[in-house]
Automatic annotation (TrEMBL):
InterPro entries: DUF1223, Thioredoxin-like_sf. This is DUF1223 domain-containing protein. PANTHER family: LIPOPROTEIN LIPID ATTACHMENT SITE-LIKE PROTEIN, PUTATIVE (DUF1223)-RELATED, PTHR36057. Pfam families: DUF1223 (PF06764). It comes from Rhodovulum iodosum. SUPFAM superfamilies: Thioredoxin-like. Signal peptide: none annotated.
Length: 232
């Protein structure tokens, strides 16, 4: 396939994907801010990725641009801490917005849809010993995880809740005067269990509200995401 055609094809796949079952979804974490003028194109890319079933994009709004003059209404200090933890795991001191982390290990800074497309393909095709499911049971969610191997170091089960979409009028800062649409905005991210994979893990948790909930099994570090599942 000619290089230009392949590049266009990969970008199309990154944004629109292909019809697939949601059995091995790839986690995309976007570290973004309403105070970042470089972020809207990547925010828009995440909105396109959110239409797919084989990708779960999660927007984590950080708070370190709030001083510029606009306080991001979705920002949480915990998301900034998570981004810094990824930086430490990658042996770097620098953090950026926009920054995407694919599958817990691969970092993409800025608007680079072709790179994101290639990483989604790679992570979607990668083998994992973990199978994971999440279902609603009344006001609770029940998460079940199984592994074909025991881990040398405990993995972490995390539960994430997100708001599918919000529109915000930006009053000040680098994006002053713009009306921006945000997608898959994380409003809660909690580690709920450590797991060595030796026996099946079953966790029941209260799920407030009707927003989608995502379960993630991830190596410590934070490191590689071994499995993810979502209930809408």
């Amino acid at each position: 396939m000619p290089r230009i055609v392949r590049a266009v094809t990969l970008i199309w796949i990154a944004l629109y994907g292909v019809a697939q079952a949601e059995d091995r979804p790839v986690i995309i974490e976007l570290f973004t801010s309403q105070g970042c003028s470089s972020c809207p194109p990547v925010d828009a890319m995440v909105a396109e990725l959110a239409k797919r079933d084989d990708v779960i994009p999660l927007a984590l709004h950080v708070d370190y641009w709030d001083y510029i003059g606009w306080k991001d209404v979705f920002a949480q200090p915990g998301f900034t801490r998570r981004q810094k933890a990824y930086a430490r795991a990658a042996h770097t001191r620098s953090i950026y917005t926009p920054q995407i982390v694919v599958g817990g290990v691969d970092h993409v800074v800025g608007y680079r849809p072709m790179d994101v497309a290639q990483l989604i393909e790679a992570h979607r095709d990668a083998a994992s010993p973990v199978s994971l499911s999440i279902v609603r049971d009344g006001d609770d969610v029940v998460i079940t995880a199984n592994s074909t191997e025991t881990f040398a170091e405990d993995a972490v089960l995390q539960v994430v809740r997100y708001i599918p979409e919000r529109v915000v009028d930006i009053g000040r800062g680098e994006n002053a005067g713009r009306t921006l649409r945000y997608t898959n905005i994380v409003d809660a991210w909690k580690a709920v269990a450590r797991w060595d994979g030796a026996a099946p893990l079953v966790v029941t948790l209260e799920a407030d509200g009707e927003h989608p909930v995502v379960a993630i099994v991830q190596k410590s570090g934070p490191g590689q995401i071994l499995a993810a599942a979502r209930v809408r």
